[in-house]
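Subject: design request, 208 residues
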C-alpha cells in the first residue's frame, strides 16, 4: 500500500445522501476474482444508459470538468449497505485518493483505510461550502494534507479535519495489515525462536 501524505488535484462532486455500495459497485461485477480493474464499473448503473455504453448526461461524474479527479465530495452516509470491499477498490482504481463526506458507513470507512483510500469526515455545512467553491464548468483543484490534517479549498481556505491517530499513521506511512504486523518482525522472530523445540517437547511428553 502506497503512503498517502498529501493529495493535490481535481475535485469531483457527487452530493447525494445515502449512496450505497450496490450503486458504487453493482453486484453483477462482484464475480471478478481480480482486485484491480474495478474502476470501469464504478457507479455503472448511474453512469450509463440502458445500452451500457452511452454515458448519461445527468450523472455528475460524467461531467468533463471532473475528469481525472483525485478527490470526491460526497453526501452523508456514503458507502452504506453491504460490506463489499469492491466498492473502495473501484473508487481507488477509478483514480480517487480521497473521499470527503459528512459521514460514512463504518465498514466502508474501515475497508477504505485498509487499502490506502482516505475517507474523511467534515461537517455538513463545511462540505456544502466546499461544493459551492467547485467550478462545475472549468473544474477546480483542492489539496488534502494527511500530515497536517487540513484541506485547502479551491478558493484557498484552510479547513481542519479530525482523523484517528492510528488511521492517520496507516495512511501516511502506507501500512496495511501486513505492514503493521511486519513492524513487529523482530519481536515475532524472537518469540518464534523460543518455540523452536516446542514440537519435540510435546512429542517427548506424549511418549512418556
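Subject: RE: design request

Done. Sequence follows.
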Amino acid at each position: 500500500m502506497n503512503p498517502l501524505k498529501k493529495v493535490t488535484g481535481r475535485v469531483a462532486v457527487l452530493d447525494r445522501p445515502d449512496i450505497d455500495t450496490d450503486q458504487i459497485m453493482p453486484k453483477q461485477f462482484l464475480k471478478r476474482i481480480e482486485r484491480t480493474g474495478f474502476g470501469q464499473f464504478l457507479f455503472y448503473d448511474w453512469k450509463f444508459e440502458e445500452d451500457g455504453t452511452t454515458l448519461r448526461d445527468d450523472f455528475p461524474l460524467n461531467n468533463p470538468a471532473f475528469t481525472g479527479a483525485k478527490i470526491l465530495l460526497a453526501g452523508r452516509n456514503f458507502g452504506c449497505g453491504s460490506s463489499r470491499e469492491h466498492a473502495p477498490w473501484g473508487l481507488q482504481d477509478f483514480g480517487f485518493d480521497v473521499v470527503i463526506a459528512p459521514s460514512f458507513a463504518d465498514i466502508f470507512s474501515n475497508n477504505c483505510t485498509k487499502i490506502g483510500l482516505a475517507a474523511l469526515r467534515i461537517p455538513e455545512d463545511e462540505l456544502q461550502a466546499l461544493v459551492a467553491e467547485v467550478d462545475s464548468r472549468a473544474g477546480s483543484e483542492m489539496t488534502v494534507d494527511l500530515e497536517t490534517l487540513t484541506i485547502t479549498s479551491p478558493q484557498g481556505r484552510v479547513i481542519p479535519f479530525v482523523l484517528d491517530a492510528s488511521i492517520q499513521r496507516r495512511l501516511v506511512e502506507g501500512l496495511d495489515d501486513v505492514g503493521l504486523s511486519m513492524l513487529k518482525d523482530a519481536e515475532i522472530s524472537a518469540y518464534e525462536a523460543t518455540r523452536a523445540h516446542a514440537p519435540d517437547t510435546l512429542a517427548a511428553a506424549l511418549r512418556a
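Strands lie at 6-14, 71-74, 98-101, 118-121, 141-145, 150-152, 158-160.
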